[in-house]
């Protein structure tokens, strides 16, 4: 463990045990619990037309959330009947409101149930799950609860399909799921499971007035080796992002199912080729696929989720939403602005509450830019660019009763060289860890720690991103059966520098 347990942490553990007891299978409500970490804000449950994300940064703070959570509506279908008969609770077991309460308890202010599809599931979502979501919104207004699903993506593994908050959100999901989800037809339609159908889906989504978001789940879970990909391939990410760059925006850097080792399983359920420090190989390998996409100048972001189905204390492989993984978005407590932050890369992620805030800023020639943004500097001046990193450690204990400590922060820089000739390219040889910082290299300002590093004579387009860890591993090692609480990391999304 990273910190010593105290009487406070033992009380926290007792509270967790009580929560697990109350949040049992089939529960429709759980006992009130303390709000762990972060501040609360009243949810604004309104049509997103009234508050489209427009670059207005007022009242934006880092807000933790989770866009990949399962409820009892991840069920099963009896296909001996026509139409198929749906039964709740086969794959995931908790009511939507239970997930929302647990999300609130573990410091989240936004979340999303992303249930599995299946034959005629679009009708189940519309007629059964959506009314339960509306009830959960009323019961837990502190957590913005998005509507959407774990999309049965044509020719690919699952993806988040997040629908903007508006009066016709249920009908919008029904239209997309019934028309494009590969498992929705009954009888099955093999023509649904093609890359051409995926492109058709993205074009339809792009044409909609209320633009959804699409984010790939556990992208390398089916990979059989390092760089030996399975269902999700680099060219499919590129082709989809080319068609709808404001819809198809990223993948999970840290997949869910992180509690697998606590029950003898693999982190993330990655049984063929492991995660690295809990992160997918596509993200964790410096100069790998993520860097290859960023090196093209793509605005391609990473997130971290729980993929919660069944809590590990009940024999599952999962943590509750927010208990271990968090995706932070710089936004107002507002549906439209949360989606705007996800769409535009105002995101950083962490596991185990290693830190509670992270700001990465590029500064040069009197201007600055943060994660997801672009700093433009003049070529004539051969500008130096200062990278400022600010992070706030956890004050108190995390959900395991530990107080984790940041042992190192890495600054990673790669060049932006334009589109790759090979659509399946998964390397960026220009990407390097340009500096590593330990506790002696940062200084404290208020409740934050600050690191500054200068990139000298910047003459080419580039991006900079940051990661940090509680370990002494120079690079994240392939995961085995170690406790996930002993192997914590955080990652920023990139800030870009453009030289003109």
TrEMBL record:
Give the residue ranges for region: Disordered: 39-61
- Bilayer-crossing regions: none
Cited InterPro entries:
Pol/histidinol_Pase-like, TAT_signal
Biased composition (Basic and acidic residues) is annotated at 43-61
Q: By its UniProt entry, which Gene3D superfamilies does this protein fall under?
A: Metal-dependent hydrolases
Its protein name is Phosphoesterase
* Source organism of this protein record: Planotetraspora kaengkrachanensis
